[in-house]
Amino acid sequence: MTFNSLGLSDSLLRAIAQSGYTVPTPIQARAIPAILEGRDVMAAAQTGTGKTAGFVLPILQNLYITSRAKPGQVRALILTPTRELAAQVHDSILTYGRNEQLSSAVVFGGVNINPQLRILRRGVDLLVATPGRLLDLYQQGAVNFDALEILVLDEADRMLDMGFIRDIRRILNLLPNQRQNLMFSATFSKEIRQLAGSICRRPVEIDVAPRNSTVDAIAQKLLRVEKGEKADLLTELLAATHEQVLVFTRTKHGANKLVKKLAKDSISATAIHGNKSQAQRTRALDEFKRNKVQVLVATDIAARGIDIELLNLVINFDLPQVPEDYVHRIGRTGRAGASGQAISLVSSEENKQLRAIEALIKRKIEPLAMPA
Ligand code: AMP
Questions:
Q1: Is the CB of 24 under 6 A from ligand 1?
Q2: Cα–Cα distance between 227 and 249 in angstroms, integer?
Q3: For the whole model, what pTM was predicted?
Q4: What is the CATH number of domain 3-207?
Q5: Does domain 213-367 sit in CATH 3.30.470.20?
Q6: How far is the CA of 345 from the centre of ligand 1 (A)?
Q7: Does pLDDT of 209 surpass 70?
């Protein structure tokens, strides 16, 4: 299977070639033709499956053939739960749309609203937004949805987890009825199906990554350790590898404490979590991507949607409260077909969480044999 058979225009195929992609991922192979046909799509796909290109490419093509956005208008609206994901989706639009004559913008909270007001007043073909900031901008009269053609909900499950349902419903009420709807979600729970039922019309359902097969590609191990000894054990694990590692903690405070402790042990680390400003988060992610630090310590919500390539190891310093988060966390390794490893540090207080995770992934996580 090549990109040529999916029905994409020459200019998009050129942008794909420039990105160095030769073969479409399974989600791309199925979503792109369906979206090009104008169908609604409901896809179960996690970050790392290539889902972003799977909707950005056909949207760029669908928009191209009609007219441009007039002042205040938006033609395709992509809603994401986090600022990081919004910024990444917009980067993809710039990359894949480099040969198209379409305008785009990204808006999220935590930064000055004035430049966003100015950009939206001019009108944009593609807008990536987090729900709260989009509503602010709408209330200030910067944007209208009269010309909206396409709606995307990216990481819909996380939007519900983060309590965005009311904002989403408010936004839905503002949109024209006649539109194309695309929904992406790592999991399809009852709530997500209900939401999809109220948004999508006869959607094409795509499920490329059933939960267990994703998890199967990752070597998962645990280390039994008492709570007070976790930090020293982590230092030992990190000192034994020169690779970059993503470490998860349950709390923001825990993430900060860990970064300090690692610095004391001469291990370079930086943290990314919800209490950090947008600039701080971008800087931390950038340092990690440019290999300036070995370790990125993240909380579950902050880590969602961040795009880090070729990560071989994820360490769970704490187990997550919600078992689904375990699957999201370890999904950050073994991307794009590469194999990965996930190690969880488990204290006796965390047995309940461990059992819930093992029940969810339908397998036992075996102990890791530590080198003497
Ligand atoms: P996503 O799931 O959209 O976050 O994409 C995961 C990563 O895969 C991103 O870094 C993309 O640049 C990359 N990617 C997307 N499509 C392809 C492809 N067809 N071949 C190789 N890499 C890809």
A1: yes
A2: 13
A3: 0.64
A4: 3.40.50.300
A5: no
A6: 30
A7: no
